[in-house]
Specification:
The protein is mostly helical. It has three helices and three strands, in the order αβαβαβ. Helix content is 49%, strand content 12%.
């Protein structure tokens, strides 16, 4: 299985779990934002998620966020997460 296939499968599973949780709580899944944390992610993992259409990414280390915002497409929505 390729990296892209593995990431695609995992993303699908997470989205299915979100949908199921929303259904149980009678919440609209469109109100939920999935933020993929990139703290230890390799650049090709981030790119694979991006290529699958994912646009929300979270980073907890400011020293990593700066370079990543330049390295990846500009339509990514970056989120600072955790404590500074």
């Amino acid at each position: 299985m390729t990296l892209s296939e593995t990431i695609s499968r995992n993303l699908t599973r997470v989205r299915e779990r979100i949908s199921a949780a929303c259904e149980r709580s009678e919440r609209d899944p469109k109100e939920v934002r999935l933020v993929a944390v990139t703290k230890y992610a390799e650049p090709d993992w981030v790119q694979a998620l991006y290529d699958l259409g994912h646009r929300d990414f979270g980073e907890s280390r400011p020293q990593q966020l700066g370079p990543r915002t330049v390295q990846f497409p500009q339509d990514i929505r970056w989120h600072m997460i955790g404590h500074l």
